[in-house]
Amino acid sequence: MAFIDHESPSSDLLYAQHTSEYAYRIPTPPRILVPPPELTANFFPETAPRPLQEYGLAKNTRLFQSPTHFNTPRGLGWTYGRRRQAQAILPFLYLGPMVAAKDGESLKKEGISMLLSIRHKHSLESRLMSGAMRVADELGIQRTTLDIANNQELISAFPIATRMINEHRAHIDKLHQSYQGDAPVMGKVMVSCESGNERSAAVVAAYLMEVHDDVDYIKAMQICQAQRFCVNFDEAMKHLLQNYWDILQAKRMVTEGGHAEITYEASVSSHPTSDADSCNRLKRPLELDDNDDDDDEQHRGESDEARFEGRSFAPFTDA
């Protein structure tokens, strides 16, 4: 005759009740909620970005000075017909559908100097795409196309698009400085896809994250939606932007760590010490590391219990 050991982990399950219903769906990541940007009394978003003073290929800080204005959120007076137009997300960066890139009069009026089209790799070039390319050639506007097979490839295209935008702006700035001195001239880029609401919107959001030090993936989507109300970031795209934000954060930490290491090496080389002092300094941290290992063993059990504190949900309760 078999006896049940009530102190064993398996027997504990006999006296436990689950606190919620079982779900048999495929596991999915939690939803990412993007709240609408808060507005001030003057209807300006509190999410105004602070540009980096220096970025990658273009080290001219004139290119990344804070805009003199930040457009009033278009969502306040949004109409359905405006989805066919391009909106200025930043004074030099526009977002819109392919039909807007085909409007030559609008391109000349806004001073667009480059068209960046995000196109599906395996689809034939649409008439709208052909028309936009033809209009760009007629107006002498630089045009570039990024072919994407699926949304997952966007994460590798984000830095490419950012580099293209910055190189173009640096080129326009240098070109006008050569014969206009310090006259402020901005190269303006329009990013577009078929609808102007999905892949191109993600590229613009990624640009905001990469060239601004205080714009995360939530804030980037808020800025895009405040200016172009019809943008559509589905859950897959939100998680893609979140992953890209994590990558940017890791790169910045590595860069900052490299600068700190160079500064430390420079300070050590400028203040040489004797061999005896170096040995004593090396021995002291090693002894501290040994003591830290002993402390870790003592507090490992306490930390294991502490990680469950503050959790309001328990999957099972005692019967």
Automatic annotation (TrEMBL):
GO process annotations (BP): negative regulation of SCF-dependent proteasomal ubiquitin-dependent catabolic process; regulation of ERK1 and ERK2 cascade
**Domain Tyrosine specific protein phosphatases, which positions?**
162-228
Positions with biased composition (Polar residues): 266-277
| Region annotation (Disordered) ranges | 265-319
Name the residues that span the membrane. none
Q: Where is the composition biased (Basic and acidic residues)?
A: 278-287, 297-310
Q: Name one GO molecular function term.
A: F-box domain binding
Q: List the InterPro entries.
A: Prot-tyrosine_phosphatase-like, STYX-Interacting_Phosphatase, Tyr_Pase_dom, TYR_PHOSPHATASE_DUAL_dom
What's a single GO CC term here? nucleoplasm
* Name of the featured protein: Tyrosine specific protein phosphatases domain-containing protein
